[in-house]
Write a structure and sequence with these properties.
Layout (H helix, E strand, L loop, with lengths): L1 H22 L14 H28 L1
Length: 66
């Protein structure tokens, strides 16, 4: 269960970074191919959503055991 939570958090953080870079709101690292590119905003949003789903699954499974 800890691995599911860790993977979920990792995907959310990574997805948010990708989305912000794709939207041109996070210009780091300078010269990155991902900056201001809408496809990376979409990919980041999908990745973050996947991480949120993993966290929700982990939370739901944790509640069942209590």
């Amino acid at each position: 269960m800890m691995m599911l939570r860790t993977a979920g958090i990792f995907l959310v953080v990574l997805g948010v970074i990708w989305a912000l870079q794709g939207l041109g709101l996070l210009n780091w690292p300078p010269g990155s191919f991902m900056l201001d590119r809408s496809e990376w905003a979409v990919r980041g949003t999908i990745t973050a959503a996947g991480g949120i789903i993993l966290l929700l699954i982990k939370r739901r499974r944790g509640q069942r055991r209590d």
